[in-house]
Design goal:
The structure is a single chain. The protein is of the alpha/beta class and about 190 residues long. It is about 35% helix and about 20% strand. The N and C termini lie far apart (about 30 Å). Helix 2 links the parallel strand 1 and strand 2.
C-alpha cells in the first residue's frame, strides 16, 4: 500500500467547495465554549460538504487562532452565520423548511443506531436537516429542545454520560451525511 500525499487526493479548492453542491445539512452550535471544538466542527463540516454552520450565543466565530488551529481552513470553506440567540437561529431554519434535531439525552430520543428507521428530510432531495449541538457542560438548552422536531442520542455503554461535543458532532454529521449523500448526485 502507498500512503497518499495531499496532492494525490484530488481535493476541492476553497473556490470549488464554495461553488459545489452541499448535502442539505446545517450544524447549529448552541453556546459551545471551546473555540477548538468549533474549529473541529468546521473541519468535519468541510469533510462532508455540509451547507453551513450556525454559531450561536457565546460560541466563538472566525477569525480566531483557536478555531483555525483545529479547522485548518475549514472555517474558510464552510459558510457560517452568527446568531445572538439560538432560538432565533432555529426559528429561521424552520421558516426555511429545515427539520430541526437536537442532539440531547431526552425521553423518546431517537437512538443513533435506529436512525435508519426514521424518515430523514432532505434524503429525497427536498428539505433539509439542522442538527443542534449544545454547550459542553449544560448541553442543548431546554427551550431549544422544545423547539426541535426530534432529539437524537448516541447510545453509550461505559461509565460516562456524554462525549466531547466535537466527537459527537463528527459521529452525527457522518450519520446524516451518509444518508443525505444522494442529494450531491445528479
Amino acid at each position: 500500500m502507498h500512503k497518499l500525499r495531499t496532492i494525490e487526493m484530488s481535493r476541492l479548492t476553497v473556490g470549488e467547495f464554495k461553488a459545489s453542491r452541499k448535502i442539505p445539512l446545517v450544524v447549529v452550535l448552541d453556546d459551545v465554549r471551546s473555540a477548538y471544538n468549533v474549529g473541529s466542527v468546521f473541519r468535519t463540516g468541510d469533510a462532508f460538504r455540509i451547507e453551513r454552520v450556525c454559531l450561536c450565543g457565546i460560541t466563538a466565530t472566525p477569525p480566531s487562532a483557536e478555531i483555525h488551529k483545529t479547522a485548518l481552513g475549514g472555517e474558510d470553506s464552510v459558510d457560517w452565520t452568527y446568531y445572538k440567540d439560538t432560538a432565533d437561529c432555529v426559528a429561521a431554519l424552520r421558516e426555511r423548511g429545515y427539520s430541526v434535531w437536537s442532539v440531547e439525552q431526552v425521553d423518546h430520543s431517537v437512538k443513533l443506531n435506529r436512525l435508519d428507521e426514521v424518515t430523514i428530510p432532505g434524503a429525497d432531495g427536498h428539505g433539509g436537516v439542522a442538527v443542534v449541538f449544545g454547550n459542553e457542560v449544560k448541553g442543548v438548552r431546554q427551550d431549544i429542545v422544545d423547539m426541535s422536531d426530534a432529539c437524537l442520542e448516541i447510545p453509550q455503554f461505559g461509565t460516562k454520560h456524554s462525549l466531547n461535543v466535537s466527537v459527537t458532532a463528527g459521529i452525527v454529521i457522518w450519520e446524516f451525511a451518509r444518508r443525505l449523500m444522494t442529494s450531491l448526485r445528479g
